[in-house]
Amino acid sequence: MPVKPMKLTVLLAWMLASPAFAALPNGVASGDITQNSAWLWARSDTTGLVNFEVATDAAFTHVVNTFNAAVIDPMQPVKGLVNGLAAGQQYYYRATDATLSSFNGSFRTAAAAGTQNGLRFGVAGDWRGELAPYPAIKNVASRNLDFFVKHGDTIYAERYSGPAQPTASTLVEYRDRHNEVLSTRYNLNTWQDVRASTAVYASIDDHEVVNDFAGGAPQVGGGFYNDTQRYQDGLQAFREYMPIADATYSGTGDARFDGKPNLYRAQQFGDDALMILTDARSFRDAELLPWNGTTADAARFLTESATQDRTMLGRTQLDQVKADLSQAQQDGVTWKFLHIAEPTQNLGLAAAGDRYEGYARERTELLSYIKNEGIDNVVFVTADIHGTLVNNLTYSPDGVNQVESGAWEISTGAVAFEEPFGPTVVNLAASLGLLTPEQVAYYDSLPNDLAKDQFIKALVNAQVLPLGYSGLGLEGSGIPFTNLMPTLPGVGQLDYSLATHSYGWTEFEIDAATGELIVTTWGIPDYSYDELTANPDLITGLTPQIVSRFSVTAVPEPETYAMLLAGLGLVGFVARRRL
């Protein structure tokens, strides 16, 4: 992809312009960028005006926009919309509060339609407050990203380890949780660095309110869960602490949606990509009764999920997803990234009720739409399960046979959740009788995370293959991918399809000329609260390393690349190479 402006000048400007930014304890942020606008955000611990300035250079000699926002409550951030920006342009901004403390950041607007500039963005979900300051994302700010997606569970209302605290349930308590994850700890503040370095998009999962809530579930006294004060407080705090528009649904004719927060986003970046971000919590039906681990109950769960008219996204949001995917295909957009907080890939019956497997009828509707409408290069990007898993997406139109949708998925994160996917799944499998004590002991005895990942892969495949689902990985799916992991002597090529014993984030990069997508997951060894507090220098000194990397070829190639190949007489060669 083309070389984009590096941000060392911005980092230098931060150091020079922000000698006393403690009055802006969470730094600054930009978000919800479009081709001509962006939201800017800051929180000051001092009441009074915050002045925002936007410039085309890091020295602020060419200021193009300014505005003020009043701080009334030091725990309530301020933000504002900047319009009239140029597409595909690097901008620099700073916030200065009533104490004259300032903090700088930068963002890049979305590229104009009809252009192919390449794209690089990051995604992660799931970070617990007591596990801050998150060295797993320490390298994000240096990756020169176009944007970063905060993919749910951006706080945890619950406190799982460390000093006991009540579960957050009020606006004040939710604000405290958001402030916690954005604050400096052990002289490190990685989220502050990320948010200053690039624009963010953000949506919720469940822990911004309470574990496993279903916003569309009817309440005893009438209305839905998303009508309750607890939901409203959780969403208010979330939107206050994110640099996003405070949009609200209206005129849908659906009581689940009208008057409720609208976190749905669909933004095109040139002809390279469409980014769709959904809210998979606020409008969903209540979960099915979980599978109890028996063969007889498996049939009950699968039948109910496949036949009951239940929703995870809500009809209004699902129809918007389908319309935006179709429009992107019609407009010649190469990649379509669909962000849904919970996995869409089939992972088996255990804990399936919370994932799209628990809403299989709607899942089939969405995947069959992608298949039947010929929408290509669709990537589902998910989180919530605290590990990286890669798989193609199939669906069953008749309840028996599985059909390839042509889409595939990668789950991302966790940034920090004790414990990650690997040990969590082993414990769950043992509790359901799917693993013997001897098998658990064998897993515990394995010498490293690579070996343990292969144990987890075998365990997951043992649950999905008997149901006719695809095993982990893209092999045999028809998706043109290449494993980019290294080959080690005596070990062979490392597996790209999972990383389940680390904390981290995932980077997506689209080549401007070829449209090839490279997917890289960065990770560090997982750690506990006790390990962090016992040796903070050791934990905060961890540096993210590549734990999964692969590429996928766009099908078909972007038009400009195909024209270039035709000019070189290489179209036939490339076509033969792909067969």
Write the layout of secondary structure elements.
Layout lengths: L7 H10 L10 E4 L6 E5 L5 E8 L7 E9 L6 E5 L7 E7 L5 E7 L10 E6 L22 E5 L19 H11 L8 H8 L1 E5 L25 H12 L24 E5 L3 E5 L17 H13 L7 H16 L4 E5 L20 H13 L5 E5 L5 E8 L7 E9 L9 H11 L5 H9 L3 H16 L16 E3 L3 E2 L3 E2 L4 E2 L2 E9 L6 E9 L3 H6 L1 H5 L4 E8 L6 H10 L2 H8 L1
Parallel strand pairs: 8-9, 9-10, 12-13, 13-14, 14-16
Antiparallel strand pairs: 1-2, 2-5, 3-4, 3-6, 6-7, 8-21, 11-12, 15-16, 15-20, 17-23, 18-19, 21-22, 22-23
List descriptors:
single chain; 579 residues; alpha+beta; Immunoglobulin-like; Purple Acid Phosphatase, chain A, domain 2; 2 domains; 7-stranded mixed beta sheet; 23 strands; 26% helix; 23% strand; globular; disordered N terminus; disordered C terminus
Structure write-up:
The protein has 579 residues and is of the alpha+beta class. It has two domains: 1-109, Purple acid phosphatase-like, N-terminal (Immunoglobulin-like, Sandwich); 118-578, 4-Layer Sandwich (Purple Acid Phosphatase, chain A, domain 2). The protein has helices at 8-17, 171-181, 190-197, 229-240, 295-307, 315-330, 360-372, 421-431, 437-445, 449-464, 529-534, 536-540, 559-568, 571-578, and strands at residues 28-31, 38-42, 48-55, 63-71, 78-82, 90-96, 102-108, 119-124, 147-151, 199-203, 265-269, 273-277, 335-339, 378-382, 388-395, 403-411, 481-483, 487-488, 492-493, 498-499, 502-510, 517-525, 545-552. α5 (295-307) crosses α7 (360-372). Residues 1-21 and 570-579 have low confidence and may be disordered.
